Amino acid sequence: MFAAALDKAGTDDPVAVAYALEGMTIPGPHGDTIVMRAENHQIAMPMVVSSIDPNAPIKFVYGGETFGIGWKTDGWVSTAENTLPTTCKMKRPPKP
């Protein structure tokens, strides 16, 4: 997303890049969409609810050692359910 904002802004000026990020989207890792909110420059994305489970199909591996446990997905919270209206009153520099 940042590289795309640099391309869109055509410069590495921080203010120009910040404005270029507003409303930008990228595909998420699970077929969802990740959005940079224009109102407050916060990322909005779904949330995965998970727990550690010895019956998980993929186990944790660290330093070549398998630990016999892995992540189990317990649920999803959609972007719409996970994103509250903002009360941000961000003071912005003028748009370049």
Automatic annotation (TrEMBL):
Keyword list, A-Z: Signal
Keyword Signal among UniProt keywords: yes
InterPro entries named in the record: Leu-bd, Peripla_BP_I
Every Leucine-binding protein domain range: 1-53
Keyword rRNA-binding on entry: no
Protein name according to UniProt: Leucine-binding protein domain-containing protein
Organism for this UniProt entry: marine sediment metagenome
